[in-house]
Design brief:
By secondary structure, the protein is an alpha/beta fold. The chain folds into two domains: 90 residues, 3-Layer(aba) Sandwich (Rossmann fold), CATH 3.40.50; 181 residues, Rossmann fold (3-Layer(aba) Sandwich), CATH 3.40.50. It has eleven helices and twelve strands. The strands form two sheets. It has a seven-stranded parallel beta sheet with strand order 8-7-6-9-10-11-12, with helices on both faces. Strand 9, helix 9 and strand 10 form a beta-alpha-beta unit. Helix 5 packs across helix 7.
Length: 282
């Protein structure tokens, strides 16, 4: 079986496929047009989240038996087209849930304790204690929107911090949790009472620009926004306006709606100075 890995995956993953006897082509610089041209030669396709596997790609993949997406989220794969073509679609949403939970927590702690600005100041020989004095998570209200693999992992990580955790999930009204401070709540309560709001949502028609201008205008406090799901969950312009209007205290983003930093305006570049951003490192 001939498999194309078109985006970066860990070495052990590639070695595992080769060890099973598959012929593996590792071509992580494959773009969309090239993928459409060469996909006919392959029985399996491995992608992450950057390449769009749409009707055109699937139609050209006459020999495709499966599409594999290591990690969570299948928003870049046309599932209906794949099903119609008899192609199995495989993902592993549980695979990185612990890493995402830890990453969301690390960004929260970094932001609350001013780790980045403090370090940048020290590198410039500035020793500014008071301006970089942090905040404690203890006693804060953390709102988690989406309680699937990553949302539940983040909630579990918060167990030892004595924070009040409010959870809203459209598809669940109650789930057992070992965290005594966790409460299933309403969307409205999270917007009104949360000091931190963390998104753990799949990207689809219902969740695109979930955090829009209307969302930010309904906030009762000025919470910290955390997004480790998909960039388009948060309307980037609405977030920028919310920062400028002090509707939120800050943002921790592992994903951006516009990840092509080379075409950012000067205003958008300045906006990046006011957030804690990482590049989908999970």
């Amino acid at each position: 079986m001939h498999i194309l890995i078109a985006e970066e995956v860990p070495l052990f993953f590639r070695e595992a496929l080769s060890g099973l006897g598959y012929q593996v082509d590792y071509q992580v610089d494959t773009n969309y047009e090239e993928l459409r041209r060469i996909i006919e030669s392959y029985h399996g396709l491995v992608v992450r989240s950057n390449l769009s596997i749409d009707q055109a790609v699937i139609s050209n993949g006459s020999n495709l038996r499966f599409i594999m997406r290591p990690g969570s989220g299948l928003d870049n794969v046309d599932l209906k087209a794949a099903q119609s073509a008899g192609i199995q679609v495989i993902s592993s949403p549980e695979g990185n849930r612990n890493a995402v939970g830890e990453h969301a927590l690390s960004m929260l702690l970094s932001f609350y304790n001013n780790i980045n600005p403090s370090f940048e100041g020290i590198k410039k020989s500035f020793w500014q204690r008071e301006v970089n004095r942090g905040h404690e998570v203890d006693g804060k209200t953390i709102g988690i929107i989406g309680y699937g693999n990553t949302g539940s992992a983040f909630a579990h990580k918060l167990k030892g911090f004595n924070a009040n955790v409010l959870v809203y999930d459209k598809y669940h009204s109650y789930i057992e949790s070992s965290n005594p401070n966790l409460t299933f709540s309403t969307y409205e309560n999270i917007l009104e009472f949360a000091d931190v709001i963390s998104f753990h949502l799949p990207l689809n028609q219902d969740t695109s620009h979930y955090a829009n201008h209307q969302f930010f205008c309904q906030l009762g406090k000025a919470p910290l926004i955390i997004n480790t799901s998909r960039g388009k969950i948060v309307d980037q312009q609405a977030l920028l306006d919310a920062l400028n209007n002090e509707k939120i205290s800050g943002a921790c983003l592992d994903v951006l709606e516009n990840e092509n930093l080379s075409n950012y305006t000067d205003i958008e570049k300045k906006w990046l100075d006011d957030v804690l951003a990482t590049k989908k490192i999970l």
